[in-house]
Amino acid sequence: xxxxxxxxxxxxxxxxxxxxxxxxxxxxxxxxxxxxxxxxxxxxxxxxxxxxxxxxxxxxxxxxxxxxxxxxxxxxxxxxxxxxxxxxxxxxxxxxxxxxxxxxxxxxxxxxxxxxxxxxxxxxxxxxxxxxxxxxxxxxxxxxxxxxxxxxxxxxxxxxxxxxxxxxxxxxxxxxxxxxxxxxxxxxxxxxxxxxxxxxxxxxxxxxxxxxxxxxxxxxxxxxxxxxxxxxxxxxxxxxxxxxxxxxxxxxxxxxxxxxxxxxxxxxxxxxxxxxxxxxxxxxxxxxxxxxxxxxxxxxxxxxxxxxxxxxxxxxxxxxxxxxxxxxxxxxxxxxxxxxxxxxxx
Length: 346
Prior knowledge:
6-stranded mixed beta sheet
């Protein structure tokens, strides 16, 4: 960094590669990379929209390995943040990138930024600012991205809207990233997650609550129950919310299903990967029973599987109950494994 210099880094690596940022600069009252702060013009938000903001970090040794493909890491650094906007039903407006680096490896950084900017172009999310700093030798590198989005006022998907009687759904097929990590192998979704922004936008006005599945399906459902249960309590409603889950309905990714079919993986172990594994970046959401056909109708135009995996009931205590399709309880050992926390950040 000392050789290249912070401002040369900004000019050579950021400004020249982000054509969208240049377009952003040309908007009246807008200001992007290169000043003390970015200015977002009123035109970036519609008259009836509010701002949605989310930040995530990727830390070397914690979230990615040292010899990671830099292009996939650049993609993932932005994708995991865009997934949060998807869970809110928001559209991207712009993003910032902060990088703490031990040194400047120009070839590595160009690959990283190629992955980052390719996704930013795909989802019209220009880089409008950020920060860079140098690290001492041996320190873990850090990439922190903040995304800004817009969502119609009062229409954001939130975690606290779950209601008794709702269906519980999940997008996509699960288990692949966790299984790949257990095998020390590579996997498309693990390295190149696809944020479900189109689905999030379509779910506005349909879903009662939503969350992105980044740390494990079971733990994310728990977050929905906790947030919504608090709202129910504030309204004076007694009891708590529980999720009754269809163990056999959990959608398994193709690579996991192939391992099951080849008898290289027990089907219950496969479902444990799907329930407790992170790095999915799918959406889990609740919706009234009467919206089932409307939700199923989204699958073909989106090219995305949407699976009804459970329902919400009232309960004396918050819990997730796993059952087979006929309503029988799953064995206790498997149920105990389902209670394992997903990815923990501390």
